[in-house]
Structures are given as C-alpha cells and as structure tokens.
C-alpha cells in the first residue's frame, strides 16, 4: 500500500466537503493556564456520529464501484468506525455489516444499529472482531472497509490537519491519540508537508502500547480493561506503522487515571463530552505539562461516544480524587447518641451526608464498638480535612477510603 500524499488529502477534503462537519478548533484559556502552554482543541466529537472516523469512512465509500456498493461492505470496529460506515453507508444506499467486540459500550452498539447496519458481536477485543469480519468478507462476498490500515482512510484523517493548520498555521506541536494509527498517520502526512518543523507526538493508553512497541522495538505488556477502548488495539496497522516511523517524533503513554482526569476536566471546563480515547491527547498534556510549557499545542478530541453510566462513574471518581466527595470509616462506641454526635460534626463543618452505613460485625474494633461508614460531599477538600480533625477531636477514630 502506498501512503496518500498532500494532494490526495486535499482531493479527499473536496470529495467529502459538505457531508462531514468542519469541526470547531478553539483555544481553551483555562486549560492553557493549567498546562502552561497555549492549548487548542479540535472538536471532532462534534461530528454527527461523534467521531472523526466519518472522514475516512466516507472517502472510502465514495470511491467504491457500483458493483462493490451493490455487494455491500463489512467492517470491524469498537464503535466509532462502525457508526461512521453505517451512517454514510445508509446515506449512499450501501448495505453495511459491522462486527464489534462483545464489550463494546451498549450506546455504540445501539447507535450503529440505529444507522441501519447489521451488527454482530464477537470476541473481547478489536483484533477478535477483525478476524471474524475478514471471515465473513470471504464467505459473503462483502467489501472490507478497514478502520485504519487503508490509504483512503488515512487520507480522510489527513483533512483534520488541513483544517487545523489553516486556522492556526503557527502551531508548534500536535498531540494525537494512537490506536491502529490511522488518525495520526493522516494528520502527520499533511502536517509535515505543510509545516515540516512541527512536532508530532502520539499518545497511547498505558495498557495498550502496541504502536510504541512496534516503532521503538519494545516489548511492553499489552492488554487489560481501559477507559480508552477506542484505541485498545493489540496489532497496529502495517501501513500506519511505516508512516508513524517516518513522520511522528515520539509516542508517549498515559495511565487510566490520566485518562479519567482528562475526560472529567473536559466536561467541567469545556462542557463537552469526550470518550477515553478522545481525551488521550489532553491526558498527556495534563500529565506531563513540562514537555509543552510555553509552546502552542493542539490536540484532537477524536470521539465523544462514552457510555453515560461510565461517564457518571468517571465524574464521581474525579470528585473523590479532588477531595470533594469522601467515604469516612468512623469508629465509635455502639451506644445511644454516638451517631447524633457524629452528624453534629458534619453539620458544624457544612459537609453534606450522602449515605450512612453501620458495620458491627466485620470490624477489628472491640465488640462494644461499631464502624459507621459515611459517604459525604463538601465544597472543597479543605472542608473534608477540617471535618476529620473535628471528629478526631471528639475522640472518634477516622479512616478515609482512597482511590488509587
């Protein structure tokens, strides 16, 4: 396979114009202050299917022959590529089959089916679904639409860089998530052609350093449950790895905690919903701000399809980590008035009680004592700290439950 060049990417931009959203590219003043770098965000989560995948999928579908369109297409995806192929396939009258991993968020499955696609769930990871899709391709005579390892797909993602550098041509750095490598490959080709000196940094989830292993010759362990399931790829593309080796300066890893923090900040600061994979670039900026201090940097919020229940968990965990929600295990004598004395401390400190649980059996305390677990919420971490001091001053033994 031959990688697309700048002219192919420009032709793609014209081909898909009007059928995909030219998404906002905005500076975040608050994030810029936090990171210490002028930080720009490309809101690809505002595409109709909430992800950048539409660009490449549409470019591929538009170039199929009439005979190929009639046969129908098949794709393997953890969700965003699936929705893109399904949505534009229906627009163009092309039958679509999608194979998705069994642990794909239900929202992504439902949305893909909502676009009229036949959806099959198979395997735990993208690689399992991919193998099954290739089997069905041969069995049913379908046309396979690869999520990343295809020149037409890469050319589609390159249109993002055209929009970014047209808006802010003096950018220093692009920070881009990596799964199979399609997104960063197209962006890197276009960006290098337009501005050869620009720094391009790839970001993978710490649990899935697949491309980093390939490019750097490493052997880090791959696998596990990640918030960034959209970039949880065990085997990156052949075409994309060659492009990345040539055009990407380095690949960094981000932890699950970093990903959660980035997703929560985007909701809190930018009022925008981004999935774990889409927040990977920002996660790196927040985790390693010293790398980017004083620079003009952009990252792509490449997808916004996160399960609402999972998003709620992420937001609550962020409140716990920043000290606004706490769970206190309070040891007290099991006698009348003990709970009243405890709740009085909460009232005096202006801390709201969310939930209370008595534990008399499973405790290391003496049989006459009890553990009262209180989940509470306060205006800030200092209020919780003051509450703990007040309780201990009253003679109670207090233990705080901690996240990682």
TrEMBL record:
<dbReference type="InterPro" id="IPR045865">
    <property type="entry name" value="ACT-like_dom_sf"/>
</dbReference>
<keyword id="KW-0663">Pyridoxal phosphate</keyword>
<feature type="domain" description="ACT">
    <location>
        <begin position="327"/>
        <end position="404"/>
    </location>
</feature>
<protein>
    <submittedName>
        <fullName>Threonine ammonia-lyase</fullName>
    </submittedName>
</protein>
<dbReference type="InterPro" id="IPR036052">
    <property type="entry name" value="TrpB-like_PALP_sf"/>
</dbReference>
<dbReference type="Pfam" id="PF00291">
    <property type="entry name" value="PALP"/>
</dbReference>
<dbReference type="InterPro" id="IPR002912">
    <property type="entry name" value="ACT_dom"/>
</dbReference>
<dbReference type="InterPro" id="IPR001926">
    <property type="entry name" value="TrpB-like_PALP"/>
</dbReference>
<keyword id="KW-0456">Lyase</keyword>
<dbReference type="InterPro" id="IPR050147">
    <property type="entry name" value="Ser/Thr_Dehydratase"/>
</dbReference>
<comment type="similarity">
    <text>Belongs to the serine/threonine dehydratase family.</text>
</comment>
<dbReference type="InterPro" id="IPR005789">
    <property type="entry name" value="Thr_deHydtase_catblc"/>
</dbReference>
<dbReference type="InterPro" id="IPR044561">
    <property type="entry name" value="ACT_ThrD-II-like"/>
</dbReference>
């Amino acid at each position: 396979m031959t990688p697309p060049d700048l002219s192919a990417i420009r032709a793609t931009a014209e081909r898909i114009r009007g059928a995909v959203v030219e998404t906002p590219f905005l500076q975040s003043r608050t994030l810029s202050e936090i990171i210490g770098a002028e930080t720009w965000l490309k809101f690809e989560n505002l595409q109709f299917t909430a992800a950048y995948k539409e660009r490449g999928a549409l470019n591929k579908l538009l170039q199929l022959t009439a005979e190929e369109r009639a046969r129908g297409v098949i794709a393997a995806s953890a969700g965003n590529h699936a929705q893109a192929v399904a949505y534009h396939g229906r627009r163009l009258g092309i039958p679509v089959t999608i194979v998705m991993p069994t642990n794909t968020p239900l929202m992504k499955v439902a949305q893909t089916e909502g676009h009229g696609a036949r959806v099959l769930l198979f395997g735990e990871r993208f690689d399992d679904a991919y193998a099954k899709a290739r089997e069905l391709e041969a069995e049913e005579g379908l046309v396979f639409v690869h999520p990343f390892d295809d020149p037409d797909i890469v050319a589609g993602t390159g249109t993002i860089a055209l929009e970014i550098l047209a808006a802010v041509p003096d950018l220093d750095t692009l920070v881009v998530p990596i799964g199979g490598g399609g997104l960063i490959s197209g962006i890197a080709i276009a960006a290098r052609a337009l501005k050869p000196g620009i720094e391009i940094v790839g970001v993978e989830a710490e649990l899935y350093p697949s491309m980093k292993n390939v490019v750097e010759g490493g052997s880090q362990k791959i696998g596990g449950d990640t918030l960034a399931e959209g970039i949880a790829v065990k085997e990156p593309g052949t075409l994309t790895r060659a492009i990345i080796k040539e055009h990407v300066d380095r690949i960094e890893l981000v932890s699950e905690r970093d990903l959660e923090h980035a997703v929560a900040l985007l909701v809190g600061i930018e009022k925008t919903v981004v999935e774990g994979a889409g927040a990977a670039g920002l996660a790196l900026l927040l985790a390693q701000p010293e790398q980017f201090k004083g620079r003009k940097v952009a990252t792509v919020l490449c997808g916004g399809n996160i399960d609402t229940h999972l998003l709620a968990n992420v937001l609550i965990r962020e409140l716990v980590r920043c000290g606004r929600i706490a769970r206190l295990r309070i040891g007290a004598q099991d006698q009348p008035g003990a709970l009243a004395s405890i709740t009085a401390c909460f009232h005096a400190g202006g801390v709201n009680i969310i939930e209370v649980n008595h534990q008399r059996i499973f405790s290391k305390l003496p049989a006459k004592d009890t553990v009262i677990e209180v989940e509470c919420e306060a205006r800030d971490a200092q209020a919780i700290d003051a509450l703990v001091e007040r309780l201990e001053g009253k003679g109670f033994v207090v233990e705080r439950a901690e996240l990682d």
